[in-house]
């Protein structure tokens, strides 16, 4: 079972955040400007007040050498290296980024077995943090980093980095995983409207299809986006209480609520003509390409819409499309009574305790580090003292403001709360089971049986 710290609290912010996104994104979709809308004043309006620059004291670390690992690639990795360069400039330390492979726990295990673990790793699942602690790899966060964490993060974001009541992780990066990005020109040509409900989404998809463009780009080659699709449908349809129960495997995947969610997903996944390349093509499409193929080809792209989090902007940036004009966004539509809001993130964890490693953790917990990456785009921080104005366009400013406004009340990605063997391993567990379901969306019972078998095995072993 999950540790208590992996279970995230929720409440009215599930609907509040959705409302903020629905209103804010609609208002901002016509502009890609970077003007601050007042969110950086701090306090209850959802923005931070800390200025960009040196807000945290760091020691001189001349001669120190550090390694930090994450699964980040491409532009995301390049942007993070600019953050590390600032840490080097201010401390004199040398930091090397070591690319990791999924699942990162397995990658770290091989590095540790070889006697060469990185000093710090960024783990994408609370379950992975717990595993690192249980294996004796992770070291507690030091006092200076804890001080920054307490000053800059809501209690909810602090708690998901804890195991057994002790702080091990600092969530450097967050994600709003309840967004659908769309090609604005395609929608305009089709006379399609931004949907508020699942029924509206199906109507919009049909309008797009009738105009001659395939509605959806689904990255089935990567299992994790499929889990995100499921989580949004399930949270909205089954409700927060059931979501928490399924996340902790207190109810089985054979539960009728899971059947209903899979049947709902099949309304899109089961329509070959609604998916770029059909089910077969979707299963061969990796996430980056699922985004870029939605925003290349002008008003005749391979697909009109792609579901995923705010981080899709990094991939949109690889095309000629501009966020806010060519590429617009709407909140994941309400399947039940309220639109879903699912969050994710990556937490920094110390594996080799040292003055330099703890200084890097302190830096990553500060607004200084996050503000650098926020300005580069395609990134979202749970740090409440990052100025909203640091985000490069009004769409991203609204997403960031809404995340901070949620405070402690949000739902964390379900698969990231699960043991990694079930919720975080390519070709296994939930990832594979949902890929199999995408391949054959008519077999709801078979999908449920496979999900329950794999979940029972993983939760039973805790791996």
Tag the structure with descriptive keywords.
disordered N terminus, 21 helices, single chain, six-stranded mixed sheet, alpha/beta, 463 residues, D-Maltodextrin-Binding Protein, domain 2, 2 domains, four-stranded mixed sheet
Describe this structure in words.
The chain starts with 12 loop residues before the first helix and ends with a helix. Strands 1, 2, 3, 6, 11 and 12 form a six-stranded mixed sheet that branches. It has helices at residues 13-28, 74-91, 104-113, 126-134, 143-152, 155-159, 184-190, 198-210, 223-238, 240-247, 256-269, 278-283, 287-292, 312-316, 355-365, 367-376, 394-405, 414-417, 420-423, 429-439, 444-461, and strands at residues 65-70, 94-99, 120-123, 162-163, 166-167, 169-176, 179-183, 216-217, 305-307, 327-331, 342-350, 411-412. Strand 1 (65-70), helix 2 and strand 2 (94-99) form a beta-alpha-beta unit. The chain is an alpha/beta fold and 463 residues long. Helices cover 46% and strands 12% of the residues. Helix 1 (13-28) runs antiparallel to helix 17 (394-405), helix 2 packs antiparallel against helix 16 (367-376) and helix 7 crosses helix 8 (198-210). It contains 21 helices and twelve strands. It has two domains: 47-176 and 344-412, 3-Layer(aba) Sandwich (D-Maltodextrin-Binding Protein, domain 2); 179-340 and 426-463, Periplasmic binding protein-like II (D-Maltodextrin-Binding Protein, domain 2, 3-Layer(aba) Sandwich), CATH 3.40.190. The model is unreliable at 1-52 (pLDDT under 50).
């Amino acid at each position: 079972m999950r540790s208590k710290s992996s279970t995230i609290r929720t409440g009215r912010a599930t609907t509040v955040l959705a409302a903020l996104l629905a209103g804010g994104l609609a208002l901002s979709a016509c502009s890609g400007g970077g003007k601050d809308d007042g969110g950086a004043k701090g306090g209850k309006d959802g923005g931070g007040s800390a200025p960009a620059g040196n807000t945290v004291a760091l020691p001189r670390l001349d001669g120190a050498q550090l390694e930090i690992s994450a699964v980040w690639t491409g532009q995301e990795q390049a942007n993070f290296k600019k953050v590390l360069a600032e840490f080097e400039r201010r401390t004199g330390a040398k930091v090397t980024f070591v690319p990791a492979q999924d699942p990162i726990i397995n990658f770290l295990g091989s590095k540790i077995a070889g006697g060469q673990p990185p000093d710090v790793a960024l783990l994408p699942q609370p379950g992975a943090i717990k595993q690192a602690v249980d294996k004796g790899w992770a070291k507690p966060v030091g006092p200076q980093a804890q001080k920054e964490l307490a000053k800059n993060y809501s209690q909810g974001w602090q708690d998901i980095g804890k195991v057994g009541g002790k702080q091990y992780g600092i969530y450097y990066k967050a994600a709003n995983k309840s967004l659908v990005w769309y090609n604005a020109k395609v929608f305009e040509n089709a006379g399609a409207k931004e949907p508020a409900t699942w029924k509206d989404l199906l109507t919009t998809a049909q309008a797009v299809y009738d105009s001659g463009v395939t509605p959806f780009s689904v990255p089935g080659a990567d299992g994790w986006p499929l889990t995100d699709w499921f989580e949004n449908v399930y949270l909205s349809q089954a409700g927060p209480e059931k979501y928490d129960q399924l996340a902790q495997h207190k109810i089985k995947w054979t539960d009728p609520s899971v059947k209903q969610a899979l049947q709902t997903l099949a309304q899109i996944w089961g329509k070959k003509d609604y998916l770029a390349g059909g089910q077969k093509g979707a299963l061969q499409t990796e996430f980056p390409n699922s985004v870029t193929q939605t925003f290349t080809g002008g008003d005749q792209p391979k697909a009109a819409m792609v579901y995923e989090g705010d981080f899709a902007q990094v991939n949109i940036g690889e095309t000629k499309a501009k966020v806010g004009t060519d590429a617009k966004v709407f909140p994941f539509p309400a399947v039940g009574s309220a639109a879903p809001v699912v969050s994710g993130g990556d937490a920094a964890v110390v594996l080799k305790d040292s003055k330099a490693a703890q200084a890097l953790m302190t830096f990553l917990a500060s607004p200084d580090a996050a503000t650098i990456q926020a300005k580069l785009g395609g990134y979202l921080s749970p740090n409440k003292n990052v100025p909203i104005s640091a985000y490069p366009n009004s769409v991203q400013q609204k997403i960031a403001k809404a995340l901070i406004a949620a405070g402690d009340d949000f739902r964390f990605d379900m698969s990231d709360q699960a043991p990694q063997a079930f919720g975080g391993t390519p070709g296994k567990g939930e990832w594979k089971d949902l890929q199999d379901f995408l391949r054959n969306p008519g077999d709801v019972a078979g999908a449920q049986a496979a999900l329950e078998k794999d979940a029972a095995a993983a939760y039973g072993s805790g791996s």
